[in-house]
C-alpha cells in the first residue's frame, strides 16, 4: 500500500447528492428533487443522532459518519447529536424491551461518543462540526409543556404503524409507553435543531425512517417548513445479515473493543459479492479507482486486491495510517512475510488474540504446545511434523523434537507456532 486515499469528494460528480446515490448511500429520502437542489445550493445545516446505548460507536454509525463527512466536504454544516435523553429511553427494538442503563453510565457514554464523532468530522472552517446533546432541551421541559407543544402534533394511529412499534404490538410482551414515545422525542430533536440552528436535514439508517419522518412532520405542522430526511441502507454481510450490537456481531470503533488488527481482518474477509459496494460506501476512493478494483475482482479474484484495499482504507480512516501499516506488517509477518520481532508488541498481541492459544512456561515442550493447540492430534504426530521440518516457531523451522520455548519468546511474552504454511497458533507465557 502507498497510503490511504485523500479524504475528499470525487470531482467527477456535479453534486454531492449524485455521489451519495452512486455510492449506494441513499436507501430512502424525502422529495429527492428538492433535496438534491438543497444540497447543490448554499450550505445547509444537517444532523445525525447517536444514542449512547453502548460504550462505543460501531460499524453502522461509521456508515453515517462517512455520509456526514461527504456532506461536510461539500460545504454543508454538520451537527453531531449524542442523545443524553433518548439514550435513557432507547429506540424500540422489533423483538423486546431494551434494558435501561443507569444515568451515570449514559452520561459517561455521552461524553465518550461525542469525542468519537470528532475523530471523523472536521472541527475547522466555517462548517466545523458542532456537538449537541438533546438532554439540554428535554431536561428543562415539563411533562405538560411536552404534551401541549409537541405531543398534540402526533397521531397515535400513525405512531402505531411504525415498523418496530407494530412488531412489538404483535408480540407477547407488547411495548412500553416509554419506548412508544421515542419517536416523539426524536421528532422534538429535529424541531429543536431547526429552531436553534436552522437545521433542515436529518440522516439516519433506513430502519429509523419512521423516526426521521416524525421530525419532518413535526416541523411541517408546528413551523410550516418542509425539512428533509435521508435514510441510508443497513450494512449487511453477503447473506443479508445485519451487522450490529443487537445481532451480537458488532464491529466497534473503539480499539479496545475491536482491535485495529481485528477490524482490518474483518474487511479483508469480505465476500467478492459485496466488496465493491463496501468500497463505494466506506472509502473515499474515486469511482475510477473502484472500477479498477471491480475489474480485479472479476479477473483475478484469488488476489483479493479489492479486499486488501478496502481493509487498508477503512482501518486507516478509523485508526490512522500508521497503525494500519503496523497491522499490515503483522498480518504479513504471521505468514512468514516479515520479522516478527520487529513488530509493535501491542499489534502482535492483537494478531495473536484471533488464534488458538496455549499458555506455557519457557521450558515447555514445543510438541506439547502443538498438541494442546490442536495443530496436531497427538504427540506422535507432533514428533513426525517436527522431524519432517513442517513446524516453526516465530518463522524459524524446528527440527529437534526435544525443543522448548526457552530463548524463542518474543518480548518475553509470546510466540507464533506454525504447522505447514498456514496453520497457526499463539503461545503465551504463563503470568
UniProtKB/TrEMBL annotation:
Residues 349-423 form the Tyrosine--tRNA ligase SYY-like C-terminal domain. It is an enzyme of class 6 (ligase). GO terms for molecular function: ATP binding; RNA binding; tyrosine-tRNA ligase activity. A motif ('HIGH' region) lies at residues 52-61. A motif ('KMSKS' region) lies at residues 242-246. Keywords: Aminoacyl-tRNA synthetase, ATP-binding, Cytoplasm, Ligase, Nucleotide-binding, Protein biosynthesis, RNA-binding. It catalyses: tRNA(Tyr) + L-tyrosine + ATP = L-tyrosyl-tRNA(Tyr) + AMP + diphosphate + H(+). GO terms for cellular component: cytosol. ATP binds at residue 245. InterPro entries: aa-tRNA-synth_I_CS (IPR001412), aa-tRNA-synth_Ic (IPR002305), Rossmann-like_a/b/a_fold (IPR014729), S4_RNA-bd_sf (IPR036986), SYY-like_C (IPR054608), Tyr-tRNA-ligase (IPR002307), Tyr-tRNA-ligase_bac-type (IPR024088), Tyr-tRNA-ligase_bac_1 (IPR024107). It holds the Pfam family tRNA-synt_1b. It is found in: Cytoplasm. L-tyrosine binds at residues 47, 182, 186. GO terms for biological process: tyrosyl-tRNA aminoacylation. The keyword Glycoprotein does not apply. Its EC number is 6.1.1.1. Belongs to the class-I aminoacyl-tRNA synthetase family. TyrS type 1 subfamily. Catalyzes the attachment of tyrosine to tRNA(Tyr) in a two-step reaction: tyrosine is first activated by ATP to form Tyr-AMP and then transferred to the acceptor end of tRNA(Tyr). Homodimer. This is Tyrosine--tRNA ligase. It comes from Agrococcus casei LMG 22410. The gene is tyrS.
Amino acid at each position: 500500500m502507498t497510503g490511504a486515499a485523500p479524504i475528499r469528494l470525487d470531482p467527477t460528480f456535479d453534486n454531492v447528492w449524485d455521489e451519495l446515490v452512486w455510492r449506494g448511500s441513499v436507501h430512502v429520502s424525502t422529495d429527492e428533487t428538492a433535496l438534491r437542489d438543497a444540497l447543490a445550493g448554499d450550505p445547509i445545516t444537517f444532523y445525525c443522532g447517536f444514542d449512547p446505548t453502548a460504550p462505543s460507536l460501531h460499524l453502522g454509525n461509521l456508515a453515517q459518519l462517512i455520509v456526514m463527512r461527504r456532506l461536510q466536504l461539500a460545504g454543508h454544516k454538520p451537527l453531531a447529536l449524542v442523545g443524553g435523553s433518548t439514550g435513557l429511553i432507547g429506540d424500540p427494538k422489533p423483538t423486546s424491551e431494551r434494558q435501561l442503563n443507569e444515568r451515570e453510565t449514559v452520561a459517561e457514554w455521552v461524553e465518550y461518543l461525542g469525542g468519537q464523532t470528532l475523530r471523523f468530522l472536521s472541527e475547522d472552517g466555517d462548517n466545523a462540526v458542532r456537538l449537541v446533546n438533546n438532554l439540554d432541551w428535554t431536561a428543562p421541559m415539563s411533562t405538560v409543556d411536552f404534551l401541549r407543544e409537541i405531543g398534540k402534533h402526533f397521531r397515535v394511529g400513525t405512531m402505531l404503524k411504525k415498523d418496530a412499534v407494530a412488531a412489538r404490538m404483535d408480540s407477547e410482551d407488547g411495548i412500553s409507553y416509554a419506548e412508544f414515545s421515542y419517536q416523539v422525542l426524536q421528532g422534538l430533536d429535529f424541531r429543536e435543531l431547526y429552531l436553534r440552528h436552522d437545521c433542515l436535514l436529518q440522516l439516519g439508517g433506513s430502519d429509523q425512517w419512521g423516526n426521521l419522518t416524525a421530525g419532518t412532520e413535526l416541523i411541517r405542522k408546528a413551523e410550516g417548513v418542509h425539512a428533509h430526511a435521508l435514510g441510508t441502507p443497513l450494512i449487511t454481510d453477503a447473506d443479508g445479515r445485519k451487522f450490529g450490537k443487537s445481532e451480537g456481531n458488532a464491529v466497534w470503533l473503539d480499539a479496545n473493543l475491536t482491535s485495529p488488527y481485528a477490524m482490518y481482518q474483518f474487511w479483508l474477509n469480505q465476500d467478492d459479492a459485496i466488496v465493491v459496494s463496501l468500497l463505494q460506501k466506506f472509502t473515499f476512493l474515486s469511482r475510477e479507482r473502484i472500477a479498477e478494483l471491480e475489474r480485479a475482482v472479476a479477473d483475478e479474484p484469488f488476489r483479493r486486491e479489492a479486499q486488501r484495499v478496502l481493509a487498508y482504507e477503512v482501518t486507516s480512516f478509523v485508526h490512522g495510517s500508521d497503525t494500519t501499516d503496523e497491522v499490515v506488517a503483522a498480518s504479513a509477518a504471521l505468514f512468514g512475510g516479515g520479522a516478527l520481532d520487529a513488530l509493535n508488541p501491542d499489534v502482535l498481541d492483537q494478531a495473536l488474540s484471533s488464534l488458538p492459544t496455549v499458555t506455557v512456561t519457557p521450558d515447555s515442550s514445543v510438541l506439547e504446545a502443538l498438541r494442546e493447540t490442536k495443530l496436531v492430534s497427538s504427540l506422535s504426530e507432533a514428533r513426525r511434523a517436527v522431524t519432517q521440518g513442517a513446524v516453526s516457531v516465530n518463522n524459524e523451522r524446528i527440527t529437534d523434537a526435544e525443543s522448548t520455548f526457552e530463548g524463542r519468546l518474543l518480548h518475553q511474552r509470546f510466540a507464533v507456532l506454525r504447522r505447514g504454511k498456514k496453520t497457526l497458533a499463539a503461545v503465551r507465557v504463563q503470568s
